[in-house]
Protein backbone atom coordinates (compact mmCIF):
# COMPACT_ATOMS: atom_id res chain seq x y z
CA UNK A 1 0.00 0.00 0.00
CA UNK A 2 1.08 3.52 -0.71
CA UNK A 3 0.44 6.53 1.45
CA UNK A 4 -1.42 9.33 -0.32
CA UNK A 5 0.73 11.63 -2.46
CA UNK A 6 -0.41 15.19 -1.92
CA UNK A 7 -0.41 17.94 -4.50
CA UNK A 8 -0.24 20.68 -1.91
CA UNK A 9 0.95 21.23 1.63
CA UNK A 10 -1.72 21.03 4.32
CA UNK A 11 -3.53 24.34 4.71
CA UNK A 12 -5.42 23.17 7.74
CA UNK A 13 -3.63 21.22 10.45
CA UNK A 14 -6.30 20.25 12.94
CA UNK A 15 -4.45 18.47 15.74
CA UNK A 16 -2.92 21.15 17.88
CA UNK A 17 0.44 20.22 19.37
CA UNK A 18 -0.88 20.70 22.89
CA UNK A 19 -3.73 18.29 22.34
CA UNK A 20 -1.51 15.68 20.72
CA UNK A 21 1.04 15.85 23.54
CA UNK A 22 -1.43 14.98 26.28
CA UNK A 23 -3.52 12.49 24.30
CA UNK A 24 -3.90 9.03 25.87
CA UNK A 25 -2.47 5.98 24.19
CA UNK A 26 -4.12 4.49 21.11
CA UNK A 27 -6.37 1.41 21.54
CA UNK A 28 -4.39 -1.84 21.64
CA UNK A 29 -6.21 -2.94 18.47
CA UNK A 30 -4.43 -0.29 16.37
CA UNK A 31 -1.54 -1.54 14.22
CA UNK A 32 1.19 1.13 14.38
CA UNK A 33 2.08 2.63 11.03
CA UNK A 34 -0.85 1.07 9.16
CA UNK A 35 -2.46 3.26 6.50
CA UNK A 36 -5.45 2.75 4.20
CA UNK A 37 -5.89 5.16 1.31
CA UNK A 38 -9.40 5.54 -0.10
CA UNK A 39 -10.48 7.18 -3.34
CA UNK A 40 -13.06 9.78 -2.35
CA UNK A 41 -15.13 12.23 -4.34
CA UNK A 42 -16.60 13.99 -1.32
CA UNK A 43 -15.84 17.37 0.18
CA UNK A 44 -15.86 18.24 3.87
CA UNK A 45 -17.43 21.65 4.41
CA UNK A 46 -18.72 21.36 7.98
CA UNK A 47 -18.16 19.12 10.99
CA UNK A 48 -21.82 19.60 11.91
CA UNK A 49 -23.48 17.28 9.43
CA UNK A 50 -26.86 17.92 11.07
CA UNK A 51 -26.70 21.54 9.92
CA UNK A 52 -25.09 20.77 6.54
CA UNK A 53 -25.97 17.18 5.52
CA UNK A 54 -23.95 17.03 2.32
CA UNK A 55 -22.58 13.72 1.07
CA UNK A 56 -19.03 14.52 2.18
CA UNK A 57 -20.05 15.80 5.60
CA UNK A 58 -22.14 12.69 6.24
CA UNK A 59 -19.25 10.45 5.15
CA UNK A 60 -16.98 12.04 7.74
CA UNK A 61 -19.67 12.16 10.43
CA UNK A 62 -19.99 8.38 10.26
CA UNK A 63 -16.33 8.12 11.27
CA UNK A 64 -16.12 10.86 13.89
CA UNK A 65 -19.52 10.71 15.57
CA UNK A 66 -20.92 8.03 17.83
CA UNK A 67 -24.67 7.39 17.76
CA UNK A 68 -27.35 5.05 19.02
CA UNK A 69 -27.22 2.97 15.85
CA UNK A 70 -27.31 2.87 12.06
CA UNK A 71 -29.84 1.80 9.48
CA UNK A 72 -28.38 -1.10 7.50
CA UNK A 73 -30.46 -2.59 4.67
CA UNK A 74 -33.56 -0.89 5.96
CA UNK A 75 -33.29 -2.04 9.59
CA UNK A 76 -32.07 -0.09 12.62
CA UNK A 77 -28.95 -1.76 14.09
CA UNK A 78 -28.31 -0.47 17.63
CA UNK A 79 -24.87 0.43 18.99
CA UNK A 80 -25.08 -0.34 22.70
CA UNK A 81 -21.52 0.82 23.15
CA UNK A 82 -22.93 4.33 22.69
CA UNK A 83 -26.21 3.77 24.49
CA UNK A 84 -29.70 2.29 24.30
CA UNK A 85 -33.09 3.47 23.11
CA UNK A 86 -36.37 2.14 24.47
CA UNK A 87 -40.09 2.95 24.51
CA UNK A 88 -41.18 3.85 28.04
CA UNK A 89 -44.77 4.84 27.30
CA UNK A 90 -47.24 4.17 24.49
CA UNK A 91 -49.66 6.92 25.52
CA UNK A 92 -48.28 9.49 25.22
CA UNK A 93 -45.64 7.93 23.02
CA UNK A 94 -42.34 8.43 24.84
CA UNK A 95 -38.85 7.08 24.17
CA UNK A 96 -35.84 7.09 26.48
CA UNK A 97 -32.34 7.68 25.13
CA UNK A 98 -29.75 6.35 27.58
CA UNK A 99 -26.04 6.99 27.05
CA UNK A 100 -23.50 4.36 28.03
CA UNK A 101 -20.17 6.06 28.79
CA UNK A 102 -19.06 7.73 25.55
CA UNK A 103 -16.75 10.73 25.76
CA UNK A 104 -15.63 13.49 23.44
CA UNK A 105 -12.01 13.35 22.34
CA UNK A 106 -11.11 16.07 24.87
CA UNK A 107 -12.17 13.69 27.66
CA UNK A 108 -15.45 15.46 28.48
CA UNK A 109 -18.24 12.85 28.77
CA UNK A 110 -21.26 13.01 26.52
CA UNK A 111 -24.37 13.64 28.59
CA UNK A 112 -27.97 14.79 28.50
CA UNK A 113 -26.95 18.28 27.35
CA UNK A 114 -25.47 16.85 24.13
CA UNK A 115 -28.62 14.83 23.50
CA UNK A 116 -30.94 17.76 24.21
CA UNK A 117 -28.93 19.92 21.82
CA UNK A 118 -29.16 17.24 19.14
CA UNK A 119 -32.90 16.90 19.70
CA UNK A 120 -33.38 20.66 19.39
CA UNK A 121 -31.39 20.77 16.16
CA UNK A 122 -33.49 17.98 14.66
CA UNK A 123 -36.66 19.68 15.92
CA UNK A 124 -36.10 22.91 14.03
CA UNK A 125 -34.85 25.14 16.87
CA UNK A 126 -31.86 26.45 14.91
CA UNK A 127 -32.91 27.39 11.36
CA UNK A 128 -30.23 28.93 9.20
CA UNK A 129 -30.72 32.53 8.18
CA UNK A 130 -32.66 32.58 4.92
CA UNK A 131 -33.16 28.82 5.09
CA UNK A 132 -35.58 27.46 2.50
CA UNK A 133 -38.37 25.44 4.06
CA UNK A 134 -38.52 23.06 1.11
CA UNK A 135 -36.79 19.75 1.79
CA UNK A 136 -35.12 17.48 -0.71
CA UNK A 137 -37.68 14.74 -0.10
CA UNK A 138 -36.11 12.36 -2.60
CA UNK A 139 -33.31 11.68 -0.15
CA UNK A 140 -30.47 13.63 -1.77
CA UNK A 141 -28.08 15.49 0.51
CA UNK A 142 -28.98 19.13 0.99
CA UNK A 143 -27.07 22.14 2.21
CA UNK A 144 -29.31 22.56 5.26
CA UNK A 145 -32.09 20.54 6.85
CA UNK A 146 -35.61 21.72 6.20
CA UNK A 147 -37.62 21.23 9.38
CA UNK A 148 -40.15 23.38 11.17
CA UNK A 149 -39.84 23.86 14.90
CA UNK A 150 -41.43 20.91 16.65
CA UNK A 151 -44.48 21.44 18.83
CA UNK A 152 -43.38 18.53 21.01
CA UNK A 153 -42.59 19.25 24.66
CA UNK A 154 -38.96 19.71 25.67
CA UNK A 155 -37.53 16.31 26.70
CA UNK A 156 -37.13 15.40 30.35
CA UNK A 157 -33.47 15.24 31.31
CA UNK A 158 -31.83 12.90 33.79
CA UNK A 159 -28.45 14.54 34.05
CA UNK A 160 -27.13 12.05 36.57
CA UNK A 161 -28.07 9.06 34.38
CA UNK A 162 -27.04 10.89 31.19
CA UNK A 163 -30.35 10.26 29.47
CA UNK A 164 -33.37 12.08 28.11
CA UNK A 165 -36.99 11.09 27.59
CA UNK A 166 -38.65 12.40 24.44
CA UNK A 167 -42.44 12.59 24.22
CA UNK A 168 -43.80 12.72 20.68
CA UNK A 169 -47.15 14.28 19.67
CA UNK A 170 -47.91 10.87 18.16
CA UNK A 171 -45.95 7.67 17.47
CA UNK A 172 -43.30 7.94 14.76
CA UNK A 173 -41.72 5.16 12.73
CA UNK A 174 -38.16 6.45 13.09
CA UNK A 175 -38.29 7.04 16.86
CA UNK A 176 -34.95 5.27 17.40
CA UNK A 177 -33.17 7.92 15.32
CA UNK A 178 -34.93 10.94 16.78
CA UNK A 179 -31.96 11.91 18.96
CA UNK A 180 -28.24 12.15 18.19
CA UNK A 181 -25.29 14.22 19.35
CA UNK A 182 -23.99 15.99 16.21
CA UNK A 183 -21.79 18.50 18.08
CA UNK A 184 -20.49 18.88 21.66
CA UNK A 185 -22.84 20.97 23.80
CA UNK A 186 -19.94 22.36 25.85
CA UNK A 187 -18.16 23.55 22.72
CA UNK A 188 -21.26 25.06 21.18
CA UNK A 189 -21.98 26.79 24.48
CA UNK A 190 -18.43 28.12 24.52
CA UNK A 191 -18.71 29.63 21.04
CA UNK A 192 -22.28 30.85 21.50
CA UNK A 193 -21.90 32.39 24.97
CA UNK A 194 -18.15 32.75 25.55
CA UNK A 195 -18.18 30.24 28.42
CA UNK A 196 -14.90 28.36 28.85
CA UNK A 197 -16.07 26.13 31.69
CA UNK A 198 -17.56 22.99 30.07
CA UNK A 199 -20.25 22.47 32.71
CA UNK A 200 -21.36 26.10 32.63
CA UNK A 201 -21.51 25.96 28.83
CA UNK A 202 -23.62 22.79 28.93
CA UNK A 203 -26.01 24.30 31.49
CA UNK A 204 -26.39 27.45 29.38
CA UNK A 205 -27.42 25.33 26.39
CA UNK A 206 -29.91 23.37 28.49
CA UNK A 207 -31.42 26.54 29.99
CA UNK A 208 -31.84 28.21 26.58
CA UNK A 209 -33.80 25.25 25.21
CA UNK A 210 -35.84 24.59 28.37
CA UNK A 211 -36.78 28.25 28.79
CA UNK A 212 -37.31 28.85 25.06
CA UNK A 213 -35.02 31.87 25.48
CA UNK A 214 -35.21 33.41 22.03
CA UNK A 215 -32.14 35.58 22.38
CA UNK A 216 -30.02 32.70 23.64
CA UNK A 217 -31.42 30.35 21.01
CA UNK A 218 -30.45 32.84 18.32
CA UNK A 219 -26.87 32.74 19.62
CA UNK A 220 -26.94 28.94 19.60
CA UNK A 221 -28.41 28.91 16.10
CA UNK A 222 -25.61 31.09 14.78
CA UNK A 223 -22.97 28.82 16.31
CA UNK A 224 -24.82 25.68 15.19
CA UNK A 225 -24.96 26.83 11.57
CA UNK A 226 -21.70 28.73 11.24
CA UNK A 227 -19.08 27.88 13.87
CA UNK A 228 -18.46 24.33 12.63
CA UNK A 229 -18.13 25.35 8.98
CA UNK A 230 -14.63 25.03 7.53
CA UNK A 231 -13.29 28.33 6.21
CA UNK A 232 -11.95 28.40 2.68
CA UNK A 233 -8.58 29.57 4.01
CA UNK A 234 -7.14 29.59 7.48
CA UNK A 235 -7.59 27.39 10.52
CA UNK A 236 -10.58 26.03 12.33
CA UNK A 237 -10.28 26.00 16.09
CA UNK A 238 -9.23 22.56 17.32
CA UNK A 239 -12.08 22.39 19.84
CA UNK A 240 -14.56 22.44 16.96
CA UNK A 241 -13.07 19.21 15.66
CA UNK A 242 -13.74 17.07 18.72
CA UNK A 243 -14.82 13.52 18.00
CA UNK A 244 -17.14 11.06 19.74
CA UNK A 245 -16.62 8.31 17.18
CA UNK A 246 -13.84 5.81 16.51
CA UNK A 247 -11.79 8.27 14.44
CA UNK A 248 -10.88 11.93 14.62
CA UNK A 249 -9.85 14.36 11.90
CA UNK A 250 -6.07 14.64 11.95
CA UNK A 251 -5.33 16.64 8.83
CA UNK A 252 -7.10 18.37 5.97
CA UNK A 253 -5.32 19.21 2.72
CA UNK A 254 -6.62 21.37 -0.08
CA UNK A 255 -5.06 20.77 -3.46
CA UNK A 256 -5.95 21.53 -7.05
CA UNK A 257 -7.16 17.97 -7.59
CA UNK A 258 -9.50 18.05 -4.58
CA UNK A 259 -9.61 17.65 -0.85
CA UNK A 260 -7.78 15.07 1.28
CA UNK A 261 -9.02 14.24 4.77
CA UNK A 262 -6.78 12.18 7.06
CA UNK A 263 -8.25 10.47 10.11
CA UNK A 264 -6.61 8.75 13.06
CA UNK A 265 -8.10 6.73 15.95
CA UNK A 266 -9.82 8.68 18.70
CA UNK A 267 -7.99 7.72 21.93
CA UNK A 268 -11.11 8.52 24.01
CA UNK A 269 -13.40 6.25 21.99
CA UNK A 270 -15.16 3.71 24.23
CA UNK A 271 -17.19 1.74 21.72
CA UNK A 272 -17.60 -2.02 21.63
CA UNK A 273 -15.28 -2.25 18.60
CA UNK A 274 -12.13 -0.13 18.38
CA UNK A 275 -10.14 0.80 15.25
CA UNK A 276 -7.38 -1.35 13.78
CA UNK A 277 -5.82 1.18 11.40
CA UNK A 278 -3.50 3.98 12.51
CA UNK A 279 -4.47 6.30 9.67
CA UNK A 280 -7.17 6.45 7.00
CA UNK A 281 -6.71 8.90 4.16
CA UNK A 282 -9.64 9.95 2.00
CA UNK A 283 -8.03 11.31 -1.16
CA UNK A 284 -9.32 12.53 -4.54
CA UNK A 285 -10.25 9.47 -6.56
CA UNK A 286 -8.96 11.00 -9.80
CA UNK A 287 -10.21 10.54 -13.33
CA UNK A 288 -9.38 6.82 -13.37
CA UNK A 289 -9.56 5.34 -9.85
CA UNK A 290 -9.46 1.77 -11.20
CA UNK A 291 -5.99 2.37 -12.62
CA UNK A 292 -4.82 3.76 -9.27
CA UNK A 293 -5.90 0.70 -7.26
CA UNK A 294 -2.97 -1.23 -5.84
CA UNK A 295 -0.72 1.81 -6.21
CA UNK A 296 -2.07 5.17 -5.03
CA UNK A 297 -5.38 3.75 -3.76
CA UNK A 298 -6.28 0.78 -1.57
CA UNK A 299 -10.05 1.18 -1.86
CA UNK A 300 -12.34 2.82 -4.40
CA UNK A 301 -16.05 2.86 -5.15
CA UNK A 302 -16.89 3.22 -8.84
CA UNK A 303 -19.86 3.27 -11.16
CA UNK A 304 -19.88 0.05 -13.22
CA UNK A 305 -19.38 0.82 -16.90
CA UNK A 306 -18.43 -0.78 -20.19
CA UNK A 307 -15.00 0.83 -19.92
CA UNK A 308 -14.09 -0.58 -16.50
CA UNK A 309 -15.65 -4.05 -16.60
CA UNK A 310 -12.66 -5.92 -18.04
CA UNK A 311 -10.14 -4.02 -15.90
CA UNK A 312 -12.02 -4.68 -12.67
CA UNK A 313 -12.32 -8.32 -13.73
CA UNK A 314 -8.54 -8.47 -14.04
CA UNK A 315 -8.13 -7.04 -10.55
CA UNK A 316 -10.53 -9.64 -9.21
CA UNK A 317 -8.41 -12.37 -10.83
CA UNK A 318 -5.48 -10.96 -8.85
CA UNK A 319 -7.41 -11.41 -5.58
CA UNK A 320 -8.67 -7.86 -5.24
CA UNK A 321 -12.09 -7.95 -3.59
CA UNK A 322 -14.96 -6.70 -5.75
CA UNK A 323 -18.20 -5.99 -3.90
CA UNK A 324 -21.36 -4.90 -5.74
CA UNK A 325 -23.98 -2.84 -3.89
CA UNK A 326 -26.65 -0.38 -4.97
CA UNK A 327 -26.47 3.37 -4.45
CA UNK A 328 -29.97 3.94 -3.09
CA UNK A 329 -31.53 4.73 -6.45
CA UNK A 330 -33.37 2.53 -8.92
CA UNK A 331 -34.25 2.40 -12.58
CA UNK A 332 -37.91 2.25 -13.54
CA UNK A 333 -40.16 2.76 -16.54
CA UNK A 334 -42.74 5.37 -15.53
CA UNK A 335 -45.89 6.11 -17.51
CA UNK A 336 -47.62 9.44 -17.92
CA UNK A 337 -51.21 8.64 -16.77
CA UNK A 338 -52.79 10.94 -19.35
CA UNK A 339 -53.01 11.09 -23.11
CA UNK A 340 -52.06 7.73 -24.60
CA UNK A 341 -51.96 6.08 -21.19
CA UNK A 342 -54.96 7.75 -19.60
CA UNK A 343 -56.74 4.37 -19.40
CA UNK A 344 -55.63 1.71 -16.92
CA UNK A 345 -55.90 -1.16 -19.41
CA UNK A 346 -53.57 0.61 -21.84
CA UNK A 347 -50.96 1.15 -19.13
CA UNK A 348 -51.19 -2.43 -17.89
CA UNK A 349 -50.90 -3.83 -21.42
CA UNK A 350 -47.78 -1.80 -22.15
CA UNK A 351 -46.05 -2.69 -18.88
CA UNK A 352 -46.79 -6.41 -19.27
CA UNK A 353 -45.35 -6.32 -22.80
CA UNK A 354 -41.94 -5.23 -21.42
CA UNK A 355 -40.23 -7.83 -19.21
CA UNK A 356 -38.17 -5.98 -16.62
CA UNK A 357 -35.36 -8.52 -16.86
CA UNK A 358 -34.96 -7.77 -20.56
CA UNK A 359 -34.65 -4.03 -19.88
CA UNK A 360 -32.22 -4.64 -17.02
CA UNK A 361 -30.07 -6.95 -19.15
CA UNK A 362 -30.00 -4.37 -21.93
CA UNK A 363 -29.00 -1.60 -19.54
CA UNK A 364 -26.49 -3.45 -17.37
CA UNK A 365 -24.85 -5.57 -20.06
CA UNK A 366 -21.83 -7.39 -18.63
CA UNK A 367 -22.48 -5.76 -15.27
CA UNK A 368 -25.84 -7.52 -14.80
CA UNK A 369 -24.80 -8.95 -11.42
CA UNK A 370 -24.16 -5.43 -10.10
CA UNK A 371 -27.74 -4.27 -10.71
CA UNK A 372 -30.10 -6.06 -8.29
CA UNK A 373 -33.48 -6.93 -9.79
CA UNK A 374 -36.44 -5.28 -8.13
CA UNK A 375 -40.23 -5.48 -8.22
CA UNK A 376 -40.85 -2.60 -5.81
CA UNK A 377 -41.00 1.17 -6.06
CA UNK A 378 -40.95 1.71 -2.26
CA UNK A 379 -38.54 -0.89 -0.84
CA UNK A 380 -34.89 -1.66 -1.56
CA UNK A 381 -33.95 -5.16 -2.72
CA UNK A 382 -32.07 -7.15 -0.13
CA UNK A 383 -34.12 -5.85 2.81
CA UNK A 384 -36.73 -7.72 4.87
CA UNK A 385 -39.26 -5.05 3.96
CA UNK A 386 -38.64 -5.84 0.29
CA UNK A 387 -39.29 -9.52 0.87
CA UNK A 388 -42.71 -8.75 2.37
CA UNK A 389 -43.54 -6.14 -0.25
CA UNK A 390 -42.63 -8.43 -3.15
CA UNK A 391 -44.82 -11.19 -1.70
CA UNK A 392 -47.86 -9.08 -0.86
CA UNK A 393 -48.04 -6.24 -3.41
CA UNK A 394 -49.40 -8.37 -6.24
CA UNK A 395 -46.87 -7.11 -8.79
CA UNK A 396 -45.51 -10.49 -9.84
CA UNK A 397 -48.99 -11.95 -10.30
CA UNK A 398 -50.30 -9.03 -12.36
CA UNK A 399 -47.93 -6.55 -14.01
CA UNK A 400 -44.87 -8.77 -13.68
CA UNK A 401 -46.39 -11.71 -15.57
CA UNK A 402 -46.26 -11.70 -19.36
CA UNK A 403 -49.68 -12.31 -20.99
CA UNK A 404 -50.29 -15.29 -23.26
CA UNK A 405 -50.86 -12.87 -26.14
CA UNK A 406 -49.43 -9.37 -25.58
CA UNK A 407 -50.67 -8.13 -28.95
CA UNK A 408 -54.22 -9.24 -28.18
CA UNK A 409 -54.09 -7.49 -24.81
CA UNK A 410 -53.04 -4.28 -26.55
CA UNK A 411 -55.94 -4.62 -28.99
CA UNK A 412 -58.40 -5.27 -26.16
CA UNK A 413 -57.19 -2.03 -24.58
CA UNK A 414 -58.35 -0.24 -27.75
CA UNK A 415 -54.91 0.48 -29.22
CA UNK A 416 -54.05 -0.32 -32.82
CA UNK A 417 -51.05 -2.25 -34.08
CA UNK A 418 -48.07 0.10 -34.37
CA UNK A 419 -49.29 2.46 -31.67
CA UNK A 420 -46.54 5.04 -31.13
CA UNK A 421 -45.08 5.44 -27.63
CA UNK A 422 -42.68 8.33 -27.03
CA UNK A 423 -40.10 7.17 -24.46
CA UNK A 424 -37.80 9.70 -22.85
CA UNK A 425 -34.41 8.63 -21.46
CA UNK A 426 -31.02 10.12 -20.69
CA UNK A 427 -28.76 9.54 -23.69
CA UNK A 428 -25.70 10.19 -21.52
CA UNK A 429 -26.46 7.13 -19.38
CA UNK A 430 -25.19 3.73 -20.50
CA UNK A 431 -27.90 1.96 -18.55
CA UNK A 432 -30.76 4.11 -19.81
CA UNK A 433 -29.55 3.87 -23.40
CA UNK A 434 -29.24 0.09 -23.24
CA UNK A 435 -32.59 -0.32 -21.48
CA UNK A 436 -34.30 1.83 -24.12
CA UNK A 437 -32.86 -0.26 -26.97
CA UNK A 438 -34.07 -3.44 -25.26
CA UNK A 439 -37.52 -1.99 -24.65
CA UNK A 440 -37.90 -0.98 -28.27
CA UNK A 441 -37.06 -4.48 -29.46
CA UNK A 442 -39.31 -6.45 -27.11
CA UNK A 443 -42.23 -4.03 -27.59
CA UNK A 444 -42.29 -4.72 -31.34
CA UNK A 445 -43.55 -8.25 -30.72
CA UNK A 446 -46.67 -6.87 -29.03
CA UNK A 447 -47.32 -4.27 -31.73
CA UNK A 448 -46.06 -1.22 -29.88
CA UNK A 449 -43.87 1.24 -31.79
CA UNK A 450 -41.50 2.86 -29.32
CA UNK A 451 -39.97 6.05 -30.64
CA UNK A 452 -36.73 7.60 -29.48
CA UNK A 453 -37.46 10.67 -27.36
CA UNK A 454 -34.10 10.51 -25.60
CA UNK A 455 -32.29 13.71 -24.68
CA UNK A 456 -28.82 14.87 -23.68
CA UNK A 457 -30.62 17.41 -21.48
CA UNK A 458 -32.65 14.82 -19.63
CA UNK A 459 -33.71 17.06 -16.73
CA UNK A 460 -34.90 19.78 -19.09
CA UNK A 461 -36.76 17.36 -21.34
CA UNK A 462 -38.40 15.69 -18.35
CA UNK A 463 -39.79 19.04 -17.30
CA UNK A 464 -40.63 20.63 -20.64
CA UNK A 465 -41.14 18.04 -23.38
CA UNK A 466 -44.13 15.78 -23.98
CA UNK A 467 -43.54 12.08 -23.49
CA UNK A 468 -45.63 8.98 -22.85
CA UNK A 469 -43.12 7.05 -20.77
CA UNK A 470 -39.72 7.68 -19.25
CA UNK A 471 -36.82 5.44 -18.26
CA UNK A 472 -35.93 7.18 -15.02
CA UNK A 473 -33.45 6.78 -12.20
CA UNK A 474 -35.17 7.70 -8.96
CA UNK A 475 -34.27 7.48 -5.26
CA UNK A 476 -35.58 4.42 -3.44
CA UNK A 477 -37.71 6.05 -0.73
CA UNK A 478 -36.79 5.01 2.79
CA UNK A 479 -39.03 7.13 5.00
CA UNK A 480 -42.76 7.88 4.80
CA UNK A 481 -41.82 11.49 4.01
CA UNK A 482 -39.85 10.34 0.98
CA UNK A 483 -42.65 7.98 -0.13
CA UNK A 484 -45.16 10.83 0.17
CA UNK A 485 -42.91 13.10 -1.91
CA UNK A 486 -42.77 10.58 -4.73
CA UNK A 487 -46.22 8.99 -4.54
CA UNK A 488 -48.46 11.29 -2.51
CA UNK A 489 -51.34 13.10 -4.17
CA UNK A 490 -50.34 16.57 -5.25
CA UNK A 491 -46.72 16.23 -4.08
CA UNK A 492 -44.44 18.67 -5.98
CA UNK A 493 -41.87 15.91 -6.63
CA UNK A 494 -44.47 13.28 -7.53
CA UNK A 495 -42.98 10.81 -10.00
CA UNK A 496 -46.07 10.34 -12.18
CA UNK A 497 -48.61 12.81 -10.81
CA UNK A 498 -51.05 9.96 -10.22
CA UNK A 499 -53.30 10.54 -7.21
CA UNK A 500 -54.74 8.00 -4.80
CA UNK A 501 -56.49 8.88 -1.52
CA UNK A 502 -56.09 5.33 -0.18
CA UNK A 503 -52.35 5.53 -0.76
CA UNK A 504 -52.15 8.87 1.03
CA UNK A 505 -53.89 7.35 4.05
CA UNK A 506 -51.53 4.37 4.07
CA UNK A 507 -48.45 6.62 3.89
CA UNK A 508 -49.79 8.58 6.86
CA UNK A 509 -50.37 5.31 8.71
CA UNK A 510 -46.82 4.15 7.99
CA UNK A 511 -45.40 7.37 9.42
CA UNK A 512 -46.94 6.50 12.80
CA UNK A 513 -46.30 2.76 12.84
CA UNK A 514 -43.66 1.81 15.39
CA UNK A 515 -43.87 -1.97 15.08
CA UNK A 516 -41.34 -3.11 12.49
CA UNK A 517 -43.43 -6.05 11.32
CA UNK A 518 -46.58 -4.02 10.90
CA UNK A 519 -44.57 -1.35 9.07
CA UNK A 520 -43.47 -3.90 6.47
CA UNK A 521 -47.08 -4.88 5.85
CA UNK A 522 -48.22 -1.28 5.51
CA UNK A 523 -45.40 -0.63 3.04
CA UNK A 524 -46.61 -3.61 1.01
CA UNK A 525 -50.11 -2.12 1.00
CA UNK A 526 -48.69 1.16 -0.32
CA UNK A 527 -46.91 -0.76 -3.07
CA UNK A 528 -50.16 -2.53 -3.93
CA UNK A 529 -51.81 0.81 -4.70
CA UNK A 530 -49.00 1.60 -7.15
CA UNK A 531 -49.38 -1.82 -8.74
CA UNK A 532 -53.15 -1.32 -9.11
CA UNK A 533 -52.56 2.04 -10.77
CA UNK A 534 -50.23 0.41 -13.35
CA UNK A 535 -48.03 3.49 -13.71
CA UNK A 536 -44.58 2.04 -13.03
CA UNK A 537 -42.38 -0.88 -14.02
CA UNK A 538 -39.50 -1.35 -11.54
CA UNK A 539 -36.40 -2.50 -13.43
CA UNK A 540 -33.30 -2.69 -11.19
CA UNK A 541 -31.47 -0.94 -8.37
CA UNK A 542 -28.60 1.20 -9.65
CA UNK A 543 -25.27 -0.56 -9.21
CA UNK A 544 -22.12 0.56 -7.48
CA UNK A 545 -18.90 -1.45 -7.14
CA UNK A 546 -16.30 -1.31 -4.36
CA UNK A 547 -12.83 -2.61 -5.19
CA UNK A 548 -10.40 -3.38 -2.36
CA UNK A 549 -6.68 -4.20 -2.45
CA UNK A 550 -5.50 -7.64 -1.32
CA UNK A 551 -3.86 -6.29 1.83
CA UNK A 552 -7.01 -4.63 3.19
CA UNK A 553 -9.77 -6.48 5.04
CA UNK A 554 -13.03 -5.60 6.79
CA UNK A 555 -14.42 -3.41 3.99
CA UNK A 556 -18.20 -3.90 4.11
CA UNK A 557 -19.87 -1.31 1.87
CA UNK A 558 -23.46 -0.48 2.68
CA UNK A 559 -26.33 -0.21 0.21
CA UNK A 560 -27.85 3.22 -0.16
CA UNK A 561 -26.76 6.83 -0.34
CA UNK A 562 -25.77 7.50 3.27
CA UNK A 563 -22.04 6.98 3.94
CA UNK A 564 -21.98 3.76 1.87
CA UNK A 565 -18.31 3.06 2.63
CA UNK A 566 -17.19 5.00 5.68
CA UNK A 567 -19.89 3.81 8.11
CA UNK A 568 -17.97 0.56 8.71
CA UNK A 569 -14.46 2.03 8.87
CA UNK A 570 -13.89 0.88 12.46
CA UNK A 571 -13.74 -2.69 11.12
CA UNK A 572 -11.08 -1.97 8.49
CA UNK A 573 -7.72 -3.66 8.90
CA UNK A 574 -4.42 -4.17 7.10
CA UNK A 575 -3.00 -7.66 6.70
Automatic annotation (TrEMBL):
Solute-binding protein family domain span: 88-450
Keyword annotations of the record: Signal
Keyword check for Signal: yes
PROSITE patterns per UniProt: PROKAR_LIPOPROTEIN
InterPro entries, per database record: SBP_5, SBP_5_dom
Pfam families, A to Z: SBP_bac_5 (PF00496)
PANTHER family: MONOACYL PHOSPHATIDYLINOSITOL TETRAMANNOSIDE-BINDING PROTEIN LPQW-RELATED (PTHR30290:SF65), PERIPLASMIC BINDING COMPONENT OF ABC TRANSPORTER (PTHR30290)
Protein name: ABC transporter substrate-binding protein
Amino acid sequence: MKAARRAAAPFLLVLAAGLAACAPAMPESVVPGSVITVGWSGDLSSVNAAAAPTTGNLDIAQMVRGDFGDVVDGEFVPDEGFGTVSIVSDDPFTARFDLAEPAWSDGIPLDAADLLLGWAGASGYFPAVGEDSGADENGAAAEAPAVEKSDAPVPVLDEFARSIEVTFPQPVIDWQQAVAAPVPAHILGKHAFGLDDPMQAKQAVIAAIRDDDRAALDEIAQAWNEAFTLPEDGELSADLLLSSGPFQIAELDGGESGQTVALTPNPEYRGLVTPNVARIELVPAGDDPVAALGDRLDVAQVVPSIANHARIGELERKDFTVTPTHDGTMWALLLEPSGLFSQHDARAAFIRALPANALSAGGAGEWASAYPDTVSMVAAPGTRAYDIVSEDSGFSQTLGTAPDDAALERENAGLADGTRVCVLYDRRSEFATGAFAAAREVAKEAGWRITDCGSDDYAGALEKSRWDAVIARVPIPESPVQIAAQWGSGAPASITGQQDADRDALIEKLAHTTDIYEAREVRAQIEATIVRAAVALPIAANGRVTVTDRDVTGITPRNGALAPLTFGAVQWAVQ
